[in-house]
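Q: What does the predicted 3D structure of Ribbon-helix-helix protein CopG domain-containing protein look like?
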Amino acid sequence: MKDPRASEDPGTILDSLTYDDTSAAPPLPPTSVEIEHAMTVVRSLKMSPEMDRRVKEAAAAHCVTQSMLIRQYIEMGLAAEQPERMIPLSDAIRVLSNLRPSA
């Protein structure tokens, strides 16, 4: 369905808009700090210094905390345990395109 105002001059459309400064602003999405504070279960784990270095580097590269990165990796691992679960086609193509050609 075509927008009936699509052929109008953009300036006319802007001039016809009304603004209400009294309405409340919509809530913002939670910050990473708020997400971290919402986590209620604490687990500890042991890793080698080399793995710790790699986790730090990967977290920095993704601009997330080490805890967030580890949670994301755990979620990906758990998702892989559900073969019946559908994945987006774009994810499948991305993974398959990175495979080495077979001999």
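A (community wiki): The structure tokens above were generated from the sequence. Helices lie at 10-16, 32-38, 49-62, 66-80, 89-97. The chain has a mean pLDDT of 84.
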